[in-house]
């Protein structure tokens, strides 16, 4: 496992992290038991993972509870934990600056920790990103001074969002929506390097499409039921084209994760894992770096065949 710089005061982070959405009960996925969730975290550490991404709304607080239980006997100085603000443990959304401290205190209690390495605003409205017009970042600086967080930032989807945040705040962490089918965030990577902002890549498998397990005939009953029949057909066609680029013999999910790891700006990639088998396979991605030529082919494919489609999440 390779370890990359994160923030100035945090340990270096494993290039594969654990996205903890699936750890929670009532998460919208096939629910894990608490024992399964704890075992997932322990197995992650055994595989070299030291970065964990969670949020109050993941499993309505149970992701943080289970993650805290799983990590409590490990050396905290070697573990890096990111949680969020904005989506609450009751399933609502509250982006009020006055709610930041209350939200963080709830997260710290559930995690059984005195601090988190980073606290990021969870996909906020665009107008909340301007540090010159919002009180959020003053409060986040206070929490940093108090030692309750080491850094802050936001979970974002587009270049424009990332640019505004970096130009108007002292944010040092961005969780960016980035994968073969969604490459807009990469336009902000050079700015992130210049500003020493760590990039966490979220949704690297495009909610499962880049694992290769879905096709035009696939149907969905969970959170992925948001896709229309046309959305499904479009993605199925794109997946077929990607397979022709990377080769049918390539492991699709591992190639998709390796694509994200090919960028120097990326500190860690956080694929979700519903099973230990998926976890092990995702970690194997680190052993299969992509050639510069293949990365360029996938970038060209995005520019010519995907960008104009404006695919919905």
List the helices and strands and how they pair.
Blueprint: E1 3-4, E2 13-14, E3 18-19, H1 34-46, E4 51-53, H2 62-71, E5 80-85, H3 100-111, E6 118-122, H4 136-145, E7 152-156, H5 159-168, E8 173-177, H6 189-194, E9 198-202, H7 229-246, H8 252-261, E10 266-269, H9 276-284, H10 292-306
Parallel strand pairs: 3-4, 4-5, 5-6, 6-7, 7-8, 8-9, 9-10
Antiparallel strand pairs: 1-2
- DSSP E strands, number: 10
Q: Which structural class do you get from the secondary structure elements? A: alpha/beta
Q: Total domains, how many?
A: 1
Cα radius of gyration in angstroms: 19 Å
What is the fourth-level CATH superfamily? NADP-dependent oxidoreductase domain
Helix content bin: 25-40%
CATH structural fold name: TIM Barrel
Total DSSP helices: 10
List unreliable stretches of 5+ residues.
none
Overall body shape: globular
Distance between the termini: 30 Å
Structural write-up:
The protein is an alpha/beta fold. The chain has a single domain (3-208, 252-291), classed as TIM Barrel (Alpha-Beta Barrel), CATH 3.20.20.100. Helix content is 36%, strand content 12%. The chain has 10 helices and 10 strands. Strands 3-4-5-6-7-8-9-10 form an 8-stranded parallel beta sheet. It has a two-stranded antiparallel ribbon with strand order 1-2. β1 and β2 form a beta hairpin. The chain starts with a strand and ends in a 7-residue tail after the last helix.
């Amino acid at each position: 496992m390779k370890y990359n710089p994160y923030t100035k005061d945090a340990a270096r982070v494993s290039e594969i992290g654990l996205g903890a959405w699936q750890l929670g009960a009532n998460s919208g996925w096939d629910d894990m038991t608490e024992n399964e969730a704890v075992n997932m975290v322990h197995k992650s550490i055994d595989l070299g993972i030291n970065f964990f991404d969670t949020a109050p709304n993941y499993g309505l607080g149970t992701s943080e509870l289970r993650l805290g239980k799983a990590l409590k006997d490990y050396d905290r100085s070697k573990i890096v934990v990111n949680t969020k603000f904005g989506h609450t443990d009751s399933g609502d959304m509250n982006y009020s600056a006055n709610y930041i401290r209350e939200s963080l205190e709830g997260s710290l209690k559930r995690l059984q920790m005195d601090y988190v390495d980073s606290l990021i605003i969870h996909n906020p409205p665009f107008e909340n990103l301007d540090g010159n017009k919002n009180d959020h970042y003053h409060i986040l600086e206070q929490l940093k001074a108090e030692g309750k967080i080491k850094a802050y930032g936001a979970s974002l989807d587009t270049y424009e969002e990332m640019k505004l945040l970096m130009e108007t705040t002292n944010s040092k962490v961005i969780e960016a929506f980035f994968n073969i089918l969604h490459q807009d965030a990469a336009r902000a990577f050079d700015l992130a390097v210049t500003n020493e902002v760590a990039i966490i890549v979220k949704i690297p498998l495009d909610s499962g499409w880049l694992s290769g397990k879905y096709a035009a005939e696939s149907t969905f009953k969970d959170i992925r039921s948001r896709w229309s029949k046309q959305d499904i057909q479009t993605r199925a066609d794109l997946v077929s084209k990607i397979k022709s680029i990377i080769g049918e013999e390539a492991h699709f999910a591992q190639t998709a994760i390796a694509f994200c790891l090919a960028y120097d700006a990326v500190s860690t990639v956080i694929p979700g894992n519903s099973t230990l088998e998926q976890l092990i396979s995702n970690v194997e991605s680190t052993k299969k770096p992509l050639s510069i030529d293949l990365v360029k082919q996938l970038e060209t494919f995005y520019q010519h065949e995907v960008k104009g489609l404006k695919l919905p999440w």
